[in-house]
Design goal:
The complex is a heterodimer.
Chain A: E1 4-7, E2 10-14, E3 19-25, E4 30-38, E5 45-50, E6 56-59, E7 62-67, E8 72-77, E9 86-94, E10 102-103, E11 107-112
Chain B: E1 5-7, E2 10-13, E3 19-24, E4 31-38, E5 42-50, E6 53-56, E7 65-71, E8 74-79, E9 88-95, E10 105-106, E11 110-114
Parallel strand pairs in B: 2-11
Antiparallel strand pairs in B: 1-3, 3-8, 4-5, 4-9, 5-6, 7-8, 9-10, 9-11
The chains are: A mainly beta, B mainly beta.
Chain lengths: 113, 115
Amino acid sequence: QQQVKQSPQSLIVQKGGISIINCAYENTAFDYFPWYQQFPGKGPALLIAIRPDVSEKKEGRFTISFNKSAKQFSLHIMDSQPGDSATYFCAASVNFGNEKLTFGTGTRLTIIP
Amino acid sequence: DAGVIQSPRHEVTEMGQEVTLRCKPISGHDYLFWYRQTMMRGLELLIYFNNNVPIDDSGMPEDRFSAKMPNASFSTLKIQPSEPRDSAVYFCASTLAGGPSDTQYFGPGTRLTVL
């Protein structure tokens, strides 16, 4: 099963708060988990990615948490800002990037003042 | 670099007409992907090429869809005949050698409306 399930579909967070987006997968062969960010009218762009040999990866205000046993990973945005308002996609791949990405369905994040 | 270039940016056509979407990948990238994005189904991979050769077209919805990559700097996605349910945003993306899951650089997309 190649599916990646993403939740929630939409999320509203107050400025300064923590935004959390979750993804779950079935295929235990997945070994690469990127997150893409998409602004309205633009194509998605890679935000941050993790491999399953670590449980967490942090880049600035963005953190991926990875739970291999639960087959789940999540994106945390600390101190959320209005400029973070976008659609976020999780994705997964097998064979260390030698196979195509399977994307989640996306989460529309809105940061309100 | 100008990034991935797609044309047209918007296309409105009538049911039954042929539609051709165009993509110029980033120079030097050897993987090219075509995606379709809709509210209902999210981002779906239609087909991808490696060194101009189609590798996986399992996402192409039906025979009405076809894609070509005649050279390293150009690809087309054709829909013939088009149907209203084909209305979506179509993205092209490319990536450098390393694998099809390496950082993909997306174009701005073509918004297709089939009336």
